[in-house]
TrEMBL record:
Record's protein name: ParA family protein
The organism of origin for this protein: Rhizobium redzepovicii
Taxonomic superkingdom: Bacteria
SUPFAM superfamilies: P-loop containing nucleoside triphosphate hydrolases
Organism lineage string: Bacteria, Pseudomonadati, Pseudomonadota, Alphaproteobacteria, Hyphomicrobiales
InterPro entries: DNA_Partitioning_ATPase, P-loop_NTPase, VirC1
Length: 227
């Protein structure tokens, strides 16, 4: 079953938010989902300790030696496996990337985030050279402003990345209170109280569009392998 990891050597780049948004959206739609929480801060493990009704299994006993076996076992158990990686360029991260069908590189709309995301792209390119394989990946913007309030620097960064042939998701996870509320309340977007979270409906629509685009990337990767 598909394995998706989120990698970026910069802490606070939005990896956990991206992974949790995708995992909970798919689980809400009826898919079986396992999240492997390899972030030392264990944000998704903490989320799982809450009262969410979604049957998402979280595995957090992973290290460099066990990450591949944990992913392989999870892939036989669930329809989707997500891996939230630590904020460093490590051998654990490399092993997860090698085993993943898609690597997402979350970044915010700043020059510093773009620089750190370039390091993650470099890690993937090095892994490709070491293994002689190609790995599907895409940058994934988060905490950007929705149209028509998109900042010029956000547009320029995205344009520059694409001009350098770096794949970038069209759908951004916009700056929304609801994404923080997921971690605060330990619930999914679909379980939050709309009367207490501003813009919840817009955040849900945003999450569904992002998930649809990621699913299409996974389908295209499968079609490419079949060809």
């Amino acid at each position: 079953m598909p394995v998706v990891c989120a990698a970026n050597p910069k802490g606070g780049a939005g990896k956990s938010t991206t992974i949790l948004t995708l995992a909970t959206t798919l689980a809400d739609q009826g898919a079986s989902v396992i999240v492997i929480d390899a972030d030392p801060n264990k944000p998704i493990t903490d989320w799982r300790s809450g009262e969410s009704r979604l049957p998402i299994k979280v595995i957090d006993d992973v290290n460099e030696a066990t990450i591949r076996d944990r992913i392989n076992a999870a892939a036989t158990e669930a329809q989707f496996v997500f891996v939230d990686l630590e904020g460093t360029a490590s051998r654990l991260a490399s092993r997860a990337i090698i085993r993943s069908d898609l690597t997402l590189i979350p970044l915010g709309g700043t020059a510093l985030d773009a620089k750190q995301a370039a390091r993650a792209v470099g890690l993937i390119r090095e892994t490709e050279e070491d293994t002689g394989r190609r790995f599907k990946f895409s940058l994934a913007f988060n905490r950007t402003n929705p149209p028509p309030f998109t900042r010029r620097i956000e547009r320029e960064i995205a344009q520059q990345l694409r001009s350098n042939s770096v794949p970038v998701l069209e759908t951004h996870l916009y700056r929304r209170e609801a994404y923080n509320a997921m971690f605060m309340e330990r619930l999914s977007l679909y379980e939050l109280n709309p009367s207490s979270v501003n813009g919840l409906g817009a955040a849900i629509d945003n999450a569904i569009h992002l998930t649809a685009e990621v699913l299409e990337l996974l389908r295209s990767a499968t079609r490419g392998e079949a060809a």
